[in-house]
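Notes, p. 3: input format for complexes.
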Amino acid sequence: MSETTTPAPATATQEAEILAALGKRLIVLVGMMGAGKSTIGRRLAARLNLPFIDADTEIEAAAGMTIPEIFELHGEPHFRDGEARVIARLLDGGPAVLATGGGSFMREETRRRVAEKAVSIWLKADPDIILRRVRRRADRPLLQTADPAATVSRLLSEREPVYRHADVTIASRDVPHDRIVDECLDALRARLAAPAIDTASTAR
Ligand code: S3P
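Output follows (204 residues plus shikimate-3-phosphate):
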């Protein structure tokens, strides 16, 4: 049948299939600062009619201060411990779409929890896109350095081998947001809910 061989458009059926296969799991967006995790996550959640949660906002609410304040007053290790705790709690509250801070997936324990309770999407962005986007705001303590381009490049080389462990990878680039969301939906469906009929038709 033709619909088993052509890429499925984002339809209500596709979205229902994803939701059914997701169950109580979350969709977790990982990747660098500026990759578009919150922007895409919010739109993806709206398409699936799921709640959207931003881990950074939740961390700030739990701490009663902003992320730059946490870094300044308590340091990065303290922030990372709080971040891991908050994400662990949020992972018990699915189904939802969760945008995580760019460093959170570097913690092994968080990756294990995400693998258990979520389907993860790495939004992979090139350094020039990241830099252009993060330059618009000064609220990322890790990038308040003399040479933000060198910092982004170092972080990418440390982190990309780890982000690669996400279930799905989507290239984040300067195209309309809905196109990236469509690609996320296609990839999620393929990962979660590939109908049995697809396997049967390719086996023939
Ligand atoms: C960080 C990313 C930030 C925030 C904090 C540290 C990182 O979140 O958690 O500034 O280590 O990459 P976003 O990825 O949402 O910018």
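The mean pLDDT is 91.
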